[in-house]
Amino acid sequence: MLRQSALAQGLVRCHVCGHLHPLAKNRHARHCKVCGGLLHARRPHSLQITLALLISSYALYIPANIFPIMTVTQLGMTEIHTIIGGIFALVEKDMAPIAVLVFVASILVPLLKLLGLSALVLHVHLRWQGNTRWWMRIYRLIVFVGRWSMLDIFMISILVAVVDLSGGVSHVIAGPAATAFAAVVVLTMIAAKSFDPRLIWDNHTAL
Amino acid sequence: MPPLTACPECDLLLKPADLITGEKAVCPRCGYLLHRAREQSIERVLALSIAGLILAIPANFLPLIGIRFMGNSNESTLWAGAVSLFGQGLWLVAVLVFLASIFIPLLNTLLAFLISVHLHFNRPHPHLAHWLRWLQHLEEWAMLEVYLLGIIVACVKLSDTADVHLGFGLYAFVAMLLVNAMLTTSLDEVLFWQRIAELDRKKHA
Known about the structure:
By secondary structure, chain A is an alpha+beta fold. Chain A contains seven helices and eight strands; from the N terminus they run ββββαββααααββαα. Chain A has two domains: 41 residues, no CATH class; 161 residues, no CATH class. Helix content of chain A is 55%, strand content 13%. The two termini of chain A are 18 Å apart. Chain B has a three-stranded antiparallel beta sheet. Chain B has a two-stranded antiparallel ribbon with strand order 1-2. A two-stranded antiparallel ribbon of chain B has the order 3-4.
């Protein structure tokens, strides 16, 4: 009886505490008797919710990269930085390692997350066959790296607070791209959370 | 029939492994880490959550870093980061920074404290299951380690033009980060749910 999914055996695993329950005979939602969490065999509307959040993230990715993320004023000189511009400024100041770090966290990770999640949604929806373990690795990587994109937002919050010198000598103002970028990070994190990885396996065992 | 379990990430039906301390159980199909039996999980979580709550005070209110530039100087705390973003009208980003760097880490530590203190003294509480559920949901939204990397990048950027010095708050912040990371790895969720279910049964018996 093992080597089968719990669902195929008429069992539902509670998302929260892991307790197994028999599948409900009617369609009414039930609660787990151990922890009180709502029971469902797979996250309801997993693909639709993930897709909706992904589309919003793609849309917000554009203003996040076009608009200035911060404005630095020093001794009357004002510099406006976009995300890319900030990275180039770091390279010019011979801070290549930090530039690579910011590039990975602010450009590479969000982009790979968007593309990776899109591929996962397509994979499940179109029932692509292939190496299931490989898709699982992509999913876990996306979940793991998601939070690290907040690096740029945290860095800006620190700069805004600390570079605020009296008499207008020096100050930093956060720009509108910060809101758009933070929204991309949060929405893709929720998108990754709403994607149910068990769909990858259902897809495969349905053959 | 023995109680069965299922892998949370691939739904494979499994017989639960009976682990001794230090052993771990991995899903044979997808490789998910199902359970890692921790030594004295409840006691360690209790001790670490108390340490985390104490460290939260200096980490939040003492200056993290300070700069000096052309005779002017300024210092910044964890609070000031969120507050000054709010002051510039970016309230959405400010709320997010506040949640990820201050509120959720603190709430998680508080929840871990409440749960472990009840389990340690065998006191049932009607909200134990809710607390652990919230703790599991909120875990990934506490981003102290990302914030630390943000501080490091900000320091490197600033060191180009200004004198940067580290404040006592930063040391408290790093200590709080380490304590929270240890707390997360010491918390044996399978054991916690078992104990909560046992306490619940005892109360109804």
